[in-house]
Each structure stands twice: as C-alpha cells, then as structure tokens.
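Trying the structure run again after the queue cleared.
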Amino acid sequence: MTPLVDVVLVLLIIFMVVTPMLQKGQAVRLPQTDNPDKKADEKSQIMVAESEGKDFWVDKVKCTEAQFPQTIKEAFDRNQNYSVLFKADAHLTYGDVKKTMMRIRDAGFNNVGLVTEKRQKTS
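Done. Tokens:
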C-alpha cells in the first residue's frame, strides 16, 4: 500500500506545481487598483504581456521588442474581431505602456484593456 501512497503524493505535488502555470499568458507583476473590473470572457481575447525586461508575449508566444509589431499584426490578421488584454509589468513607465498600446492599435485592434490586481487592504 505504501508505494501507491507515494505515487499519489508525487502526482499531487506535480499538480500543485503545474496548476499556477496554467494561467493564460506570461506572469508579470501587475499594477494594483482598488476596484478592478471582473475577469472577462477569454475566448474572444488575445493576451499581450510585457515584462520589465522588455520581453513580449502574444498569447504565450514570446517575441522581442523588434518582433512585436509584426507578431501583433499577425494576431490581428487571424482574429480581427477579438479584443486585447494587456498585462504590463508594474515597473514599466507610462511611456512604455503607451508605446505598446499604440503598437496594438496600429496593428488594427480597437478594443484594448489593461489587466490589474486588486490592491490588498492594510490594517
């Protein structure tokens, strides 16, 4: 019976490690707001993420800053009716975020939303 328990525990550990990685898009430190909007339907959205190190992801596809305009344009060509959710690292400047949002708009997307986290209340 002990080997079965060992196998089950190993599987449990694997699931605990893999589950946080199943979120759509790249993990970045998000800015915090007091009242973020509720999570929208992800079926008709493209997730774009930008890290502090200027790495970009378009629906889990990593690209450089130079490749980003072409990658986002290709995403628009495939999904013209989709909207974009933009996950910008909290340490990016306003200018960096604006530049990326302009590139998304230039690719053809008209509906772009910013992803934030709910600010934790301190006592």
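The mean pLDDT is 81. Worth checking whether this holds up in the mutant runs.
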